[in-house]
Design brief:
With 534 residues, the chain is of the alpha/beta class. Helices cover 57% and strands 7% of the residues. Helix 2 runs antiparallel to helix 13, helix 5 packs parallel to helix 6 and helix 16 crosses helix 17. Keywords: Membrane, Transmembrane, Transmembrane helix.
Length: 534
Amino acid sequence: MQIKQGGFAAGDLNLKKYFLPKNLKKDLPSSLVVFLVALPLCLGIALASGAPLFAGVLSGIIGGIVVGTLSGSQLSVAGPAAGLTVIVLNAITGLGSFDTFLLALVIAGVFQMILGLVKAGTIANYFPSAVIEGMLAAIGIILIMKQFPHAVGFDADFEGDEGFLQVDANNTFSGIVSAINKINFGAVIIAAVSLLLMIYWPRFKKLATVPAPLMVVLAGVGLSLLFAHSGLALRDKQFVHIPVVGSTGEFFGLFKSPNFSAIGNKQVWITAFTIAVVASLETLLSLEAVDKIDPIKRISPTNRELLAQGAGNIISGLLGGLPMTAVIVRSSANVNAGARTKISAITHGVMLLMALLFIPALINYIPLSCLAAILLTTGYKLAKPALFKHMWHQGLNQFIPFAVTILAVILTDLLIGVGIGMMIGIFYILRTNLRNPYFYQIIKNGDKKVIRIQLAEEVSFLNKAAIQVTLTSLPKETEVYIDGSNSRYIDPDVLEIIHNYKHHAYTKGIIVSLIDIKDKYDVPKLQELKFQSN
């Protein structure tokens, strides 16, 4: 099998593996979990974006079926992203109409496909591992904090919100306080029963053939009907609200077309570029995070993912949907549910379509509090105490970027928080790099000191300052050997420092000898790796 980053033809077109019974046994129940998680998130994000509710569900359908099919990732799930709600809301308002915004979305998809073709996805290889771990833990904590109000029946904030500042004038912390003051005990009971089912149902092997999330939904619906017309009754806004389609004509009437006459509008192009960049960054971050929690440790082709996302956004724009990305909440729920292949993501898209077409009235009986329980368990699995303990044992150079990323994501939003974490992570990478450009050894030769400096395999510009400080601080009247025998590359600036030091060292009585140090080094070339298996 060959894996290429550049296009859709990734060589993994052996379709038989997707329909093996051992994979389907895992993928089909996982798709149900993703469907239940995705449904309220699609609706909530559409509501917060100022778009029709149908647009949110449509994006989830396209993200599952189209992007899921084209993507090279086996576990990531695409759909409308909470991180784009403000951009979409401002764009719809600023451009004056939803159909003009749809044109910007189509162009954004084209931009994403161009990014995939020029292999911009390789930027994902430079995300520090500690920052990705911190992002995952932060998402887990945010899920717990954001779903707590929904679990107790306070649904002022939209489903899927990940930002610290909420549209209901609260923030994450004050939203929890407000929820405690406005508890609906019917919702609390449903959430508590749902949590118990999520925790204990899988432990009974004979019963576990029925997925725990399905039992959660059945229990939630049953309890909500039992509580009806009592003091524990749920309010209308505490249920899922999927659009109810009365006929085929009504269904097709929900689709919208882009306003191509606005192609010359400069703001359309600015909006398109903004969506393309933000959606691509969030996709790459999510893809990296999903690969990290993949139990099989597969590596997803990032450039192919940008092509798949671009194609998905073009189709979404043409049909009247919202921008989509690979979404970490849905993807992590997919992983935690035990998915093995992309069939899970694709099937969840089919389920969204079937629910919209055939059973919207039944879906609207599902309480949000029972779905909150599913997301609460997902959040806990992402932010287990064992993860914090593991990162602590990795050392401060890993733990500090990890912890800063968590705090920054919780107190801002995903992209800003990760950006702050990246800066701290890069600082520690540079700090470690600066400390390891050479091996320093002092040997006594009678009364005279002999100093041996063994240069590292790669000596970059980042090592320049450390080497210069070391050389200028060497004591007088010594012999210095600078050994480059292990070095594949030495930066020209570092070579200049070494040669200048040798030239002027005699003024301090220092004798400098250079061992296997060339006058010039060629930059090592990155070679394309091809993985082959029979």
